[in-house]
Specification:
Structural class: mainly alpha
Oligomer: single chain
Distance between the termini: 26 Å
InterPro entries: DUF1328 (IPR009760)
Number of strands: 0
Order of helices and strands: HH
Keywords: Cell membrane, Membrane, Transmembrane, Transmembrane helix
């Protein structure tokens, strides 16, 4: 999931450099959403591992 975030950030950077503002904004928004989902799932998996012991 973190790879998708990095992919969309790279797409956003390239689109911004080339002047495609709408695509860059959309890709950055998608990357932000995927990143927050990743963080939530990561914290949940950490808590599950700690509570399992």
């Amino acid at each position: 999931m973190l790879r998708w975030t990095i992919t969309f950030v790279i797409i956003a950077i390239i689109a911004a450099i080339l002047g495609f503002g709408g695509i860059a904004g959309a890709a950055a928004g998608i990357a932000k959403i995927i990143f927050f989902i990743f963080i939530v799932l990561f914290v949940l998996s950490l808590l599950k591992g700690v509570l399992k012991k």
